From TrEMBL:
Residue ranges constituting the Cation/H(+) antiporter C-terminal domain according to the UniProt record: 626-771
GO terms (BP aspect): potassium ion transport; proton transmembrane transport; regulation of pH
Keywords from the named record: Ion transport, Membrane, Potassium, Potassium transport, Transmembrane, Transmembrane helix, Transport
Region of interest (Disordered), ranges: 872-913
Matches recorded under Pfam families: CHX17_C, Na_H_Exchanger
Gene3D superfamilies: 1.20.1530.20
Signal peptide segment: none
Family membership: Belongs to the monovalent cation:proton antiporter 2 (CPA2) transporter (TC 2.A.37) family. CHX (TC 2.A.37.4) subfamily.
Taxonomic lineage from the root: Eukaryota, Viridiplantae, Streptophyta, Embryophyta, Tracheophyta
The protein's name in its UniProt record: Cation/H(+) antiporter 15-like
Spans through the membrane: 37-56, 68-88, 100-121, 133-155, 167-189, 201-225, 231-249, 270-299, 319-336, 348-373, 379-399, 411-434
GO cellular component: endomembrane system; membrane
Length: 913
């Protein structure tokens, strides 16, 4: 029995066994021991590795430990460090003949694991983003390399267990300074940070590292040959394998996709063929002199992500490989790791110092490069921690070094322990301290993180809207909605149309501009018809409409973060997302509903959920008409709905019915503040549509939630759309009905309209939610300094406006000079976030004037002036342009054929239930 080296990549002990004696067990009744045979021992290794790793993962889950740490610990327990201290155990469980099978299966498992990770990635997108982050990537790679190589060479005399002369310290420094794509992608996927700003940055940097790593692999293979002729053959062989995959296998894969019926998975024979090709390419690259991992990565990257091919392979193979076969790799790691071999403490400290210096260099490099890029220091440190994560690739490299006698048992055990300790510290640190909602880069003053809303957006100027589309059925209703918003030269619309492609196999979310040109071997997708419809509408619309098409490829749990970042970047006041018809509370992980909930929670602007009942199957500009109902109870969300309707009211083909419901019995301070804001907006809406025959206002009075729900029956089944707010600023009303709602993201009224028993479930609705601090605990993601500034900002704005009100009452200055844009910019909408201080300041002011200590008319005047909506304030330009549209035009109800009454005629119409 001896040892051998094959192409400097994988070494197995040479074991000669008799097949009929050492492989098969004839039964314990024939005086045999099952642990003397290979197959029973291998099966026992699989069972123990899976059970122990799962038990450790359950135990350490409260400590936020990763699966990697748990798997390595399971391998150490099974190896000579713990259970292997028993000589009998080692002889039975880890005999050389059994380890041949374990090593073979573990290599196959790691090959397929790397292959599956790369399938989930969009190589084209990652390579594009890597071009933008190459400076950060080089800094995080070169500085750790310099630190590590300097420390290794200076402490060389303290490291007798490291052999290979001066060449190995350089090789070790290169491997230590690189951040491998497979390791970082797998760790971020487990942390659910792949779609975050920091996760995208880390993945882009690792793509650059992979390019450098691939080049170094070719150099290493060439230098490992004996003469120049073999060196040339080795390089040509690697290039030939890469060309074969790109120009032969890749077209075959697309041919398979074209042969697969739409909506159907790929046939199993194709899946098996692809897995066999991956293993065959791994054998080929290993025979050339490289390891098997480059072949698995190339094969994974060329497979189109998502259905039908990528999703099918991932669905059929991922669970079995990652949970059943991959633990065998860590059994092998535990077999080679013997903690009792650590005897020389000076060498332990020296080797530990080399590893720590490399991590320190990565932190220094991240902080240095953060200065010119306006990156926050905390983000730079977290980025360095993510790039310092190590995993399967480093462990594979460590096994190679051990087989090549470059590391002794002590230094290999030290390397494995450093990986455990590092990941055990970094993973929970990142999970605890990183908040995806906090921007990693310091924004200039012109790009703030303030909440944006329709109410605070001027009606003069471009309106930017993000619309999300999941399927072609959503297109007519969203185009009708854009047309109803009345695009004009003074108020054009820019729609950012995002096609949502939900892929379970896609690990890294991709939000990229949609390009309509066809490329060689381009993967067919369902975005062509959707984008063609929107672009065609923008070209022939009656007003200026610009469409910016995007394609979002990601699982639903990751989709919201890129969309919210896009909303902040373009400063849009409105995001419209579809309410998925197929969503079910009991669906897999509730992912379809989680997307809507995440958008509502994290978007710093108004979010509208469009419940489309498919009543509009096509869109026509020549015969366009839109009948809209607006339900108004009060509150910030309902005000957003009213402002949305105000934009539509100027369209000559849009008819609007406003249903104002008064709910009696609520006289708290917060209610009075909200009521005055509501009345101010309603007065402006009625004044703006005073002569508009297409706008009708009805007012109802309700005393409880039951009467409110009865008032909804006032709506006839003749409306194309019902616009309503999610919340209504009336706690008593919502508390009584919230427990009965099936879809809380729609609110009480929206859920009732979307119910199947409301006119047969055939009425479409748009549920709007104004962003507020209640949506998301944003302050928990800010530093103490940020929270203090936000607190002072709100409170100082309140104090300044109270002083301005006193000056206004004393008639020292004009009111329009007091409430200027500079003063209003100090206030964070909604104003009610500072209600307690409002009450105190108002009472003080009232007491100074000799008024009783209760909310007075001063409070009403103050609040109504503060939040005067800019988009409803009539200007000469808007009035002139608006009146031209309605000259000699009348709006008729299509169903009844009667001319509708104007808003002025129905102002005083009140129905008491």
């Amino acid at each position: 029995m001896g040892s051998t080296t094959v192409n400097n990549t994988l070494i197995h002990p040479q074991v000669c066994v008799l097949l009929n004696k050492n492989m098969h067990f004839n039964g314990m009744f024939l005086s045999g021991n099952p642990l003397d045979y290979i197959v029973p021992v291998f099966m026992l290794q699989v069972i123990l590795s899976v059970l122990i790793s799962r038990a450790i993962h359950v135990t350490l889950r409260p400590l936020k430990q990763s699966k990697l740490v748990c798997n390595i610990l399971a391998g150490l327990i099974l190896g000579p460090s713990v259970l292997g201290r028993s000589k009998l155990y080692m002889e039975k469980m880890f005999a050389p003949k059994e380890m041949v099978v374990t090593a073979t299966m573990s290599n196959m498992a790691t090959t397929l694991f790397i292959f599956l990770i790369c399938i989930k990635m969009d190589a084209a997108m990652l390579s594009r983003t890597a071009k933008e982050t190459w400076r950060i990537g080089l800094s995080c790679m070169i500085i750790p390399f310099l630190f590590t190589v300097a420390c290794t060479l200076s402490l060389d005399h303290f490291l007798p267990g490291i052999r290979g002369g001066k060449a190995f310290p350089i090789q070790f420094s290169i491997v230590s300074s690189l951040s491998y794509f497979i390791v970082i992608a797998h760790a971020l996927d487990e942390l659910n940070l792949l779609s975050s700003e920091l996760g995208q940055l880390s993945i882009s940097i690792t793509m650059l590292n992979e390019i450098v790593s691939g080049f170094l692999v070719m150099v290493g293979v060439a230098l490992g040959q004996k003469d120049k002729k073999d060196m040339l053959y080795a390089i040509l062989s690697l290039c030939g394998l890469a060309a074969f995959v790109i120009f032969v296998i890749r077209p075959v894969l697309h041919w398979i996709i074209k042969r697969t019926p739409k909506g159907k998975p790929v046939h199993e024979c194709y899946v098996i063929a692809i897995l066999l090709w991956t293993l065959l390419l791994g054998v080929a690259t290993d025979a050339v002199g490289a390891s098997f991992s480059p072949a698995a990565m190339i094969m994974g990257f060329v497979i189109p992500d998502g259905p039908p091919l990528g999703a099918t392979i991932t669905e059929k193979c991922e669970l079995f490989i990652s949970e059943f076969f991959l633990p065998l790799f860590f059994v092998r790691i535990g077999y080679f790791t013997n903690l009792s071999a650590i005897q020389d403490w000076k060498e332990l400290i020296a080797f530990g110092a080399v590893i720590a210096v490399g991590y320190l260099g990565r932190i220094v490099g991240s902080i240095l490069v953060s200065l010119p890029f306006n990156m926050r220091k905390s983000t730079a440190i977290l980025l360095s921690l993510i790039l310092s994560l190590q995993g399967i690739v480093e462990l594979l490299q460590g096994i190679r070094w051990k087989h090549q006698k470059l590391l002794d048992d002590q230094n290999f055990a030290t390397l494995v322990m450093s990986i455990i300790i590092l990941n055990a510290i970094i993973t929970p640190t990142i999970e605890i301290y990183y908040k995806p909602e906090v921007k990693g880069f310091e924004l200039p003053d012109s790009v703030t993180q303030r909440a944006r809303s329709l109410e605070m957006t001027s009606s003069i100027g471009e309106l930017r809207v993000i619309t999300c589309v999941q399927e072609e059925d959503n297109v007519p209703s969203i185009i009708s909605l854009l047309e109803a918003l009345n695009p004009k030269e003074v108020s054009p619309i820019c729609a950012y149309v995002i096609h949502l492609v939900a892929l379970a196999s896609q690990t890294v979310p991709t939000l990229a501009p949609y390009k309509n040109h066809k490329r060689m071997f381009s993967k067919p997708n369902g975005s062509d018809n959707i984008m063609r419809a929107f672009l065609n509408y923008a070209e022939h619309s009656r007003g200026p409409v610009q469409v910016q098409p995007f394609r979002m490829i990601s699982p639903f749990k990751y989709m919201h973060q890129p969309i919210c970042r896009l909303a902040e970047m373009i400063r849009t006041p409105l995001i419209i997302v579809p309410f998925f018809k197929s969503q079910d509370v009991h669906s897999t992980d509730g992912t379809l509903r989680i997307f809507n909930n995440n958008i509502q929670a994290f978007a710093k602007c108004t979010v509208g959920i469009l419940v489309d009942r498919g009543l509009r199957t096509h869109f026509s500009l020549t015969s366009f008409s839109y009948n809209v109902a607006v339900i108004f109870l009060g509150g910030a969300d309902d005000r957003e709905a009213l402002v949305f309707a105000a934009r539509m009211s100027r369209h000559p083909s849009v008819a609007i019915t406003l249903l104002r419901i008064h709910l009696r019995g609520n006289r708290t301070l917060e209610f009075e503040i909200e009521r005055e804001l509501d009345e101010s907006l309603l007065r402006d809406f009625k004044a703006m549509n005073d002569s508009n025959a297409c706008v009708v206002c009805h007012e109802l009075v309700a005393h409880n939630s039951e009467e409110v729900m009865q008032a909804l029956r006032f709506l006839a089944n003749t409306y194309d759309l019902v616009v309503v707010g999610k919340r209504h600023g009336i706690a008593q009303f919502e508390e009584g009905l919230i427990s009965w709602t099936q879809y809380p993201e729609l609110g009480v009224i929206g859920d009732a309209i979307a119910a199947p028993d409301f006119y047969g479930g055939m009425m479409s609705a748009l549920v709007l939610q104004h962003h507020s601090e209640e949506n998301q605990s944003v302050c928990q993601g800010y530093s103490w300094k940020d929270r203090r500034e936000r607190w002072l900002e709100t409170k100082m704005g309140s104090i300044i406006l109270c002083i301005c009100t006193l000056m206004r009452k004393s008639k020292q200055v004009k009111s329009h000079q007091l409430y200027s844009t500079s003063a209003l910019s100090l206030i964070d909408a909604p104003i009610v976030t500072s209600i307690p201080l409002w009450s105190i300041l108002i009472k003080i002011i009232c007491s100074l004037e000799g008024s009783p200590l209760h909310p007075s008319s001063l409070e009403v005047v103050l609040l109504s002036t503060i939040v005067q909506p800019q988009n409803l304030a009539p200007t000469q330009e808007s009035e002139s342009s608006g009146n031209e549209d309605f000259d000699d035009e009348k709006c008729f109800d299509k169903e009844q054929g009667e001319e509708k009454t104007t808003a002025r005629e129905s102002d005083n119409e009140e129905v008491i239930l």
